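User: Hi! I'm working on a homework problem where we have to compare a predicted structure to a textbook description. Could you give me the structure for the chain below?
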Amino acid sequence: LMREKPRPYVLKNPLCSPFSPIHTIVCETVEDTLGWLEHIDYAEGVFLQEYLGTTEAGHFVAVSGGEIVSLVTNQEYKRAYTGNLGPVAGAPLAGIVEQDSEDRYGLARQLIHPLKPWLEASGFQGILQVTAIQHKRVWHAIEYNVRLGVTTGALLLRMLQNPLEVLGQLVRDESAAPAWHPERKLGVSLTLAGYGYPYIVPSVPKLPVQVSGEVSSDLWWNEVDSEAGKLYMTHHQNLDMGHRIADLNACGPTLESARDQVYEDIRKLRCLGSYYRLDLGETLWPPGT
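Assistant: Happy to help. Predicted structure tokens:
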């Protein structure tokens, strides 16, 4: 393949398990691709996706009752460090979700609605998401998912006034009728990453996790243990990936209001060697930029 079509590729694992030997490796040159192909673990196979740049976005729709209803547009911050530096992590370090029933960026119109005959023929109903790269002003689908997603799910359900009703409509194959919170137009997610993440490290110490005040954002603990009424980052004594400590989610009428809330709250969490991204909403947003 590289002899016939020498170009940069994104290397991915077909199974996408958290324990797979390959996570997403974005190669931006032919030399990058050739260098990685000599060193990756092929135990679960590998597939190559053409590299088209970094202008990426996603869109979620509800497919039921013979209709495709746009829900939200999302952006994931997949690289580990501020400024979109470092490796692509196993799960995003931050994310933005925007109410988008009008499909203002055209993702559903270009990449999902043309699939309607196939969706009807296959009898599909449920949530459908497309992730796409914009290249030369055209959106190109790089993957489709039939799930809410790790960063989008909790925010999308918070934005709806009737989340259980909408999920029930999808299960019963009825037309989805989402009712949106007017004060929750945008939502953001931010991860507090712990010592070593996202690299494989020899050991992770039992470090205390401290909370210095009331947290208003939704707080989702990840790899944290409780002992004698105190919180500690989960530790290990063997080769393993560093840990994600927590995710914080907040919604607001504007991106700035949601972002200010989540940054105020994440500063109340402390664990030695932890970090979080500082550029939420300042890069990769809005879609197409």
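For your comparison, note the following. Residues 32 and 38 are 10 Å apart (CA to CA). The radius of gyration is 20 Å. Good luck with the assignment!
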